[in-house]
Amino acid sequence: MAGRVKQRRGLIETSHAKLDALVYTNSERRGGAAVILHPYALLGGSMEDHVVAELFRAAASSPAFSLVVRYNQRGVGRSSGSMNVRGKEDMADVLDVVEWAAEQLPGPDKQVAVVGYSWGSCLAAYGLSHPAVAAYVGVSFPLGGLSFVLQTRRHFGEVCRASHVPRLLLIGDQDQFTKEEALRQAVLESGGALLRQDDSFEPQADAAAAGAATTGPGAGAAAAGAVGGGAASPAPAAALPGAERRQLLLRVFPDSDHFWMSHASLAAEYAVAWLQSLLQPGPQAGTEPGAEPGTAAAHAEAAGTEASAEKPAAAAGDPPQPAGDAAPAPPAAATLNSAQVVVTGAYS
């Protein structure tokens, strides 16, 4: 039984890069995959960031996920390449890793959640174009600070346009890089809604109405009609109409800042509970009871070695930063070749 639950560190090798990754797999589950992205590398961000580690832990503990991966972006840790000011190459890597994660899931119904913290929430936006992505979470989206340099508002636009996918933003009311009111207004202007400050995942009625009003007459209703109702979800999200589950949602946490030094586990548990309420594990055809269904561990060398969970390092880096070229358009998911996405070399 224990052999079905593994955590390994190795390289996700794509046609573009070799990415230093920590991968959790549980073949006893019939869940989806979660891809977790770390803060800005040039300010010390890595997959060892304590918020990223908490998100990884919470997702690995949830029955909604049979695979969870966090990885170092280019030039960080053992990842190949060099750090890029505006993350052009990192955007391409997001789609590659999402494709890889989806390929590890047996059966035709593959669901991947993209979860980013700080600058990672900007990069995660580019995973939304992949057909396997079923949900998005952005923790401390850096809409302020040096947003004009990194064009984070452009990345925010990618999040807003993905109305086919449920999207959740989490922010502390004392965030140093994004004013709560600025993000709140941006969400409402995009037809989104504010969530109650509890665990119900229910929108504040007045805020939801304000969001519909700011987008013009009938704009909120038109967006809702376009997505329609989806499959039933477990409580509490099941109580919401399908359109509201696919809204852009914002949850504000009191007494929390950008770094979540005292509340990282609270934010992570909330994010994963929301994802769990949306993503329903289902039976997977062709999976034998004792088989490892194409997990990272099955593709790693030295398959007999299990890595113990690593203690996350303290938060190092984050958001907005230096200048460079204009942000590129995301690469099309259709151009990915899954045969070029493999995991090689397990190491402790």
Automatic annotation (TrEMBL):
Stretches with biased composition (Low complexity): 206-225, 285-327
GO molecular function annotation: hydrolase activity
Pfam families on file: Peptidase_S15
TM region positions: none
InterPro entries per UniProt: AB_hydrolase_fold (IPR029058), Xaa-Pro-like_dom (IPR000383)
Domain Xaa-Pro dipeptidyl-peptidase-like: 68-137
Chain residue ranges for the region called Disordered: 206-238, 283-332
Gene3D superfamilies named in the record: alpha/beta hydrolase
PANTHER family with a match to the protein in the record: AB HYDROLASE-1 DOMAIN-CONTAINING PROTEIN, ALPHA/BETA-HYDROLASES SUPERFAMILY PROTEIN
Protein name: Xaa-Pro dipeptidyl-peptidase-like domain-containing protein
Upper lineage: Eukaryota, Viridiplantae, Chlorophyta, core chlorophytes, Trebouxiophyceae
